[in-house]
Amino acid sequence: MTRGNTNDRDDGVWLSRRRLLGATGALAGAGYLASAGGRAQTTSTIELGGEIAGWQGRAPEAIADETNPTLRLEAGQEYRIAWTNLDGFGHNIALLDDDGGVLERTSVMSEEGESQRLTFTAREAMAEYVCEPHEGSMRGSISFGNGTATETTTETDGEPVVPEGPTVALDRIAGGFEVPTAFAAPPGDGRRFVVDLPGQIYVHTDDGLREEPFLDVGDRLAELTAERGLLGIAFHPDFGTNRRFFLRYSAPLADDAPDEFSHTEVLAEFTMDEDGEQADPDSERVLLAIDEPTPYHNGGAITFGPDGYLYASYGDGGSPRDMGPGHAEDWYDANGGGNGQDVTENLLGSVLRLDVDSRDGEKAYGIPENNPLVGEEGLDEHYAWGFRNPWRMGFSDGELYVADVGQSRYEEVDRVVKGGNYGWNVREGTHCFGTENVSDVPEECPDSTPPDVRGGEPLRDPVVEYPHQRDGEFVGISVVGGYLYENDAIPELQGKYVFGDYSRKGNPRGSLFAAIPTEDGQWDFSELQVEGAEGGAVEGYLIAIGRDETGELYALTSAGDLGGAVHRITAAGGEAASGTTAGARNATAATESATTATGSAPTGSPTAGTASTTASTTGPGTTDAPTDGRTSAATGTSRTATGGGTGTGATASSPRTDASGGDANGSGGNATGDTTATDGPGFGVLAALAGVAGLAARRLGRD
């Protein structure tokens, strides 16, 4: 057992619950609130739920359903805070004094549904309670009075932070995925390729979704967590003739990586079979392998630019505030860290640009001769830097747009140029950022690097920025990048940049936005209203936005009523792709999803008792894989790849839009589960649902 606080009290242990129960929202009763080890019954218990949107009050009744409630304590009284992780992000709880000093804290835990408790004696020095990785949004006050907890209220001015925009429809074209992370459509091919987090790539055509995966690399992945898995795909501009394509995935930690690191991010090339039906799993050639300090902030987007080069995004390494092991020191002494501003020690916190059609010395790829640091101090692969977690990116009208997920307060979209510095961790969006206490925003910070750091390059502002919340109104928590819409099928979107956010406040309700590009300054944007959906929101977490070869856009979602699915964004009030009327789209999709949930889940998806998949130990980063081509996040060294790292992927059953079999106990498919007394009644049903939704409720974009 791991202790949940820094003292030696027996009741500081973590209480682990089945992750499937957490993934389906079936948080068990208050059994974990009983006093431990025979402790006297005078301890007062406060129950909270923890999610990025804020601490959610549960008990006593005075704080129930309040966000970040004030905890009113009595000095000298013993209290127990019992809290449950609601969203699968990394959270802890810490009690702070007026100066931000930590008086009590627990360790970080990231399993959805897992519970933790902290027992302490209240003293008047206590001023606030926070989640340290998310201090900006998960923060509440402590006051002293009559020994009860009371809520705080926030007045709003009634004006929305983001104005309401035009209405669009979402036509569900495929479903049954776990977490669809990427979408690609090679020019002239006529097919649409959907990437699923557990390691499968599926083909969708006008005839529907094909049964067998185009490729399965699930046996090469590290154990799936909130942000590890198969993350990106890009097809070579000449794919029609050379059959080459590229993947980004999270592999087990390489043997020569630092022991304390999490895993190794692999960029690899594959080739399609000559018959064009499936990829050759034995054709893998590893181009680049980067050892990651934590499971978080992996970026994962890859795309080819109009110049024919491959662009790849990498986050800052994942520790909060860009600090800690594996996070390099940089030029800005006022803040600890970080990889976002460093370009000499490693390739993290950057967008890289590689020439996959040549080789530079011992490297498995070439370096474009006009990359900004060629001949300068720094690693030649860098194209732009200063990013925290560039989750999705893409080219539109020759411009590269990158969505960079913020930490505490702001989300941003950047128009990226060669050699651009986008500010992290000196700034979050256009705002100063402090690593000592993220709630205490510095009044001033640099707007450029010093003259002796690349000549005083400017820190570039985003073209889109929005807060997580303002005056009690939640806007979003994790930006999702998109594309300019240049077609005329949806007149209201023509010429606008369509992007979104994973969730409004941690629940499975994402958002779609449309921004009006301008040459200078920040862009105005509005929130698109989804036809037939509650509150106009996307029904499910928004994971990614895709674009096909004709320029039409797609929303990739997970969890919620519609499960893991791909939806074509269309004009409101028209005919759906399936022939159903616009008003019936959501009802039809929900019915299909409900049928899917009770049937068999794809092979490799979570089964009863686990919400993550442990991958095979073969593949890149193990003793059977090549170790060359690796870049260490600790040293920044690189060696040439040999083109190994091969292996056959297990065949998975396809995602489904309908299903047969499966009874109330979860039998008739893969989603069967234990039905012991500790699981509670109906666990088989929860396991069946989790076959589709288990991984979906686990977060991809931020920690």
UniProtKB/TrEMBL annotation:
Boundaries of every Glucose/Sorbosone dehydrogenase domain copy: 179-498
The Blue (type 1) copper domain, residue ranges: 72-143
GO terms assigned for molecular function: copper ion binding; electron transfer activity
Region listing for Disordered, in residue ranges: 437-458, 576-683
Keywords per UniProt: Copper, Metal-binding
PROSITE patterns linked to this entry: TAT
InterPro entries assigned to the protein according to its UniProt record, in alphabetical order: 6-blade_b-propeller_TolB-like, BlueCu_1, Cupredoxin, Glc/Sorbosone_DH, Quinoprot_gluc/sorb_DH_b-prop, TAT_signal
Pfam assignment, any one: Copper-bind
Compositional bias annotation for Low complexity: 576-641, 649-662, 672-683
Name used for this protein in its record: Blue copper domain protein
Source organism (scientific name): Halococcus hamelinensis 100A6
